[in-house]
Write a structure and sequence with these properties.
With about 240 residues, this protein is mostly beta strands. It has no helices and 16 strands.
Length: about 240
């Protein structure tokens, strides 16, 4: 198992999904494992939530993503990898926390916004915005360029590309598992952008976010790591 996915509180329980290969203790075609808890300490593992059973998942399966509740339904967003290793963003949902339906219109984002031929386009993190709409950040990369890109939606099904939120040619080849969330620090709202990069390390930036643009307090420098070790990667926050 690896990356935690879709952490959420839904119908009275905490849900943790996770990258999982049910066939052997090695990385292979990935599924979404699933566990629930009432106290975050004691967990019950449930049947696998997402199987790679669609053509758009026929290569390396269902990669990492996130979850959002809307009108009593839990929506799961994840990266699918087909037989050509093309990466797309897809959607599934559940009304009871146990049975999952994949959106017939998948993939909801069929290609990277920086280059349709680029395979590095993954790890959607979706969160609600102040006006009732939604935002999604994903990691992309191509030929040394890497970025966190931003989308917006009114209904979680149809997404409009806003643009790059954060760009670099020093932290590639791709920025994985981006996370963007607010924290109140000394009475002031700050937004935190977290990215997982090479060498199994997780870096963060603080700044402001207006729904369309993220401005770093101190762009790119100094390097701020969530953990000084070399095995902190692909974390995810939830409220």
């Amino acid at each position: 198992i690896n990356d935690p996915n879709g952490l959420c509180y839904f119908q009275g329980k905490y849900h943790a999904f996770f990258q999982h290969n049910p066939k052997a203790p090695v990385w292979d075609t990935m599924h979404w494992g699933h566990a629930v808890s009432e106290d975050l300490l004691h967990w019950e593992e449930l049947p696998i939530a997402l199987y790679p059973d669609q053509p758009y998942e026929s290569g390396q399966g269902c990669f990492s993503g996130s979850a959002v509740e809307k009108d009593g339904r839990l929506y799961l967003f994840y990266t699918a990898v087909d037989s050509s290793l093309a990466q797309t963003q897809c959607l599934a949902w559940t009304d009871d926390g146990q049975h999952f339906t994949k959106y017939p219109g998948n993939p909801i984002l069929p290609q990277s916004p920086i280059d349709p031929a680029s395979r590095d386009f993954r790890d959607p993190k979706v969160f609600p915005w102040k006006d009732g709409s939604y935002r999604m950040v994903c990691g992309v990369g191509k030929e040394g360029y890497a970025a966190v890109v931003l989308y917006r939606s009114q209904d979680l099904l149809h997404w409009d590309y806003v643009g790059p939120l954060f760009e670099t040619r020093e932290m590639g080849p791709v920025l994985e598992c981006p996370d963007l969330f607010p924290l109140t620090i000394h009475g002031e709202e700050k937004w935190v952008l977290v990215i997982s990069m090479g060498h199994q390390r997780t870096q963060y930036f603080t700044g402001t976010f207006d729904g369309d643009t993220f401005h770093c307090d101190v762009p790119y420098q100094p390097v701020k790591l969530l953990d000084q070790g070399f095995d902190n990667y692909a974390g995810i926050t939830f409220n």
